[in-house]
Amino acid sequence: MPHALIPLTALGRQQAIDLVERLPARPVHPVRVFASPFVRAMDTAKPYAERMGVSVELEPLLQEFDMIDPALIAGMDQAQRRPIADAFWQLADPDKRMGDQAETFRAFAGRVSSFLADRLPSLPDGTVCFGHGIWIGMAAWQLLGFSALDSDAMRQFRRFQNGMPLANGIVYRLVELAPGAWALRANSLKE
């Protein structure tokens, strides 16, 4: 099925429920809850949004990196798709588009950059966003000041992202250190 329509498993639904207890229960400001438009991100956000009495707002800039057009991998399982994804990363062409419905690595990096530079500063304190591991990895990469514009940077990002702890249900906080200067912090405890 298309990457965006992959649902949560039973374990994923339980993780979404468990995650509610690790997120702020009484924010200072009215909370806003954003999610990637991918089904599994929206379904992960729903239990928390329900607890807070708000609706999940879709934020396309939080979308997962869709490097392969779903039509090219229709009917394949994860083991069959793996060599295609591995070849994409080995080629490390930031402008490679694997089908009409795929995104280039450069476009993905630009989307994350747009969120950090344009969208994030306008969000109220206490906003909670539900997204995807590779997206969080790219945000961390960019906040550390690294580029994602050439093949070497793309390979380096992939090594970085593969080494970053990004298990389902992990919580990271974006903290504003100074106007326009942000840091990503791991947050395993409810605050």
Structural features, described:
Helix content is 41%, strand content 12%. The chain is globular, with a radius of gyration of 17 Å. A hairpin with a 2-residue loop joins strand 4 (172-178) and strand 5. The chain has a single domain, classed as Phosphoglycerate mutase-like (Rossmann fold), CATH 3.40.50.1240. The strands form two sheets. It has a three-stranded parallel beta sheet, covered by helices on one side. Helix 1 (10-20) runs parallel beside helix 2 (39-52). The protein has six helices and five strands, in the order αβαβααβααββ. With 191 residues, it is α/β, with parallel strands linked by helices.
Comma- or semicolon-separated keywords:
Rossmann fold, two-stranded antiparallel sheet, 6 helices, 3-stranded parallel β-sheet, 191 residues, single chain, 5 strands, alpha/beta
Domain count: the total is 1
Tell me the fraction of residues in β-strands, as a range.
5-15%
Number of strands: 5
Counting helices, strands and paired strands, the structural category is: alpha/beta
What are the segments in which pLDDT stays under 50 over at least 5 consecutive residues? none
Rg value? 17 Å
Largest sheet: 3 strands, parallel
How do the helices and strands follow one another from N- to C-terminus? HEHEHHEHHEE
End-to-end CA span: 38 Å
CATH class: Alpha Beta
Kindly state the mean pLDDT as a whole number? 90
Strand order of the largest sheet: 2-1-3
